[in-house]
Design goal:
By secondary structure, the chain is mostly helical. The protein has 2 domains: 85 residues, Up-down Bundle (Four Helix Bundle (Hemerythrin (Met), subunit A)); 188 residues, no CATH class. Helix content is 75%, strand content 0%. It contains 13 helices and no strands. Helix 3 packs parallel to helix 10, helix 7 packs across helix 13 and helix 9 packs antiparallel against helix 10.
Length: 326
């Protein structure tokens, strides 16, 4: 049954991708990209990779779709016709695909018990993480403890993305300009529903943030969910009101503080005589130190991701508002 579900979802992914290639309406393409991400999340769930599915649904089908829609407001809905021949790019893609397929022929069978990953790495985490880290969620143990330095790098990459967007676009907030209100201002039903849903979304984000040690979740997912709540607020009540609630300057400071909070755990562990991000040095009991370290660094990740996602939305939306004023 599981194999049948995988085949059906894979077929739907392939059909969605093919449709995206031939569509010229970019709005429809963005919608199909969201569907593609949602189907990918379903595949991850069927493979028991719930944490990955959580991230794919929140980022791929959620925030990314909103950001691409805002981008369309700046660039236009219809794809421009290309005057050049597409034969050469098609040949390059086909050759590259053929090389990649050829390279997979030497790979071990998918899911086979004798695969190298199941002989060395996975058993190490499965058997030793309960004693060394003490968390029920093994994914959090791997990402936040064993691969804590890699996760710090991912957080820095997210922060670097914010720097790039602000360098290119910035957040335009012209106090003396008649900034247009949200197009949803007259929809009272949406106002009432948003006022009910937004607090629940924020509450769920806090649950995901601090329950990641015991179940699917963590800083990345929580930060995106919290940002989605404020993006919904901006869409329904207008960008000026969102600026009044959470200002762009405050978000830039929070993005920096999140990265610094993460890195400070590593520096503190070094000051206590350990290695960088050695959580065992944070408390007399190593297991307690692991818990403290993971909670703090996950909080830093959540703060950074929330601030970056909302700041990027502000940057794109403020550009759209500026065009509407003109």
């Amino acid at each position: 049954m599981s194999l049948l579900i995988d085949l059906v979802l894979l077929a739907m992914l392939a059909l969605t991708a093919l449709r995206i290639i031939f569509l010229k309406d970019l709005f429809a393409v963005v919608m199909l990209f969201g569907i593609y991400s949602f189907l990918s999340a379903l595949i991850f769930v069927n493979l028991d990779a719930v944490d990955v599915a959580f991230t794919e649904a929140a980022v791929g089908a959620g925030i990314s779709t909103v950001l691409m829609l805002v981008t369309l407001a700046l660039t236009g809905r219809n794809e421009k016709e290309c005057a050049r021949s597409s034969l050469l790019p098609l040949v390059v893609v086909c050759v590259t695909g053929a090389v990649l397929v050829y390279g997979t022929l030497d790979m071990p069978p998918f899911g086979h018990a004798d695969n190298p990953v199941h002989e060395h790495v996975a058993p190490r985490y499965i058997h030793d993480s309960p004693q060394e880290v003490g968390l029920p969620n093994m994914v959090t143990s791997v990402l936040a403890s064993y691969r804590g330095f890699d996760t710090l790098g991912e957080t820095v990459v997210v922060f670097a993305a914010l720097i790039g967007v602000l360098a290119l676009l910035g957040v335009r907030r012209e106090e003396n300009s008649p900034t247009p209100e949200s197009g949803l201002k007259s929809h009272q039903v949406l106002h009432v529903v948003a006022k009910l849903i937004i607090p629940l979304i924020i509450l769920f984000a806090l649950y995901v943030q601090f329950h990641g040690d015991f179940g699917p979740g963590g800083g990345f997912q929580a930060g995106v969910i919290a940002a989605a709540a404020f993006i919904l607020y901006a869409l329904v009540f207008g960008l000026p009101n969102a600026f009044a609630v959470v200002s762009p300057k405050f978000l830039q400071v929070m993005a920096s503080l999140g990265v610094l909070l993460y890195a400070s755990v590593g520096l503190y562990s070094m000051a206590k005589g350990g290695q960088f991000l050695d959580y065992n040095r944070l408390a007399a009991n190593p297991i307690d130190g692991q818990h403290y370290g993971i909670i703090i660094i996950e909080l830093g990740v959540g703060i950074t991701v929330f601030a970056v996602m909302l700041s990027i939305f502000y940057a794109f939306s403020s550009q759209v508002a500026r065009l509407n004023i003109r």
